[in-house]
Amino acid sequence: MTPTETVEAFIAHWNNGDMDAMYAMCADDIVWHNIPMEPIKGGAAMREAVDGFMGPVESCEWEIHSIAANGQTVLTERVDAFQLKNGGRAALPVMGTFEIDAEGRIAHWRDYFDMGQFQREFGGG
User: Fold this and answer.
1) Using an 8 Å Cβ cutoff, are 108 and 38 in contact?
2) Which UniProt keywords apply (predicted)?
3) Structural domain boundaries of the chain?
């Protein structure tokens, strides 16, 4: 699988709700950094953070608008949309950077987005 195919499959697992398959695509020592927040380090911490975030989320509908790769690094421009359990919907424009390790797993994942918009979309601001 190419690095681009890896990222596309990773996002497809989010959209399909197949979280175990999504986690399997990540290195055990992954660093996930939503840039406005503190980085999350390690697979167990990532799983805990995702579980907490997904509590009010019914489903994901991430749409990639642009994707580019340079070696093992993949850049995405996308809108991450979420159908919420309360019937609402939240959507957030995101620029993402994924670094793929020698085993073909995601070792570093950084997402850049506007925290104020995130809070408004998810009802926290």
Assistant:
1) no
2) Hydrolase
3) 3-123
pLDDT tens-digit readout, 72-101: 999 999 999 999 999 989 999 999 999 999
Q: How many helices (H) and strands (E) does the chain have?
A: 4, 6
Q: How far apart are CA 120 and CA 39, in angstroms?
A: 22
Residues ≥6 apart with Cβ < 8 Å to 65: 77, 78, 79
Spell out where 1-121 has E strands: 26-34, 40-41, 57-70, 73-84, 89-100, 106-112
What are phi and psi for residue 37, nearest 5 degrees? -120, 180
The pLDDT value recorded for residue 124 is 57
- Residue 16 structure tokens: 């399909």
Cα separation values, 42 from 66, 83, 87, 107, 114, Å: 28, 27, 32, 9, 24
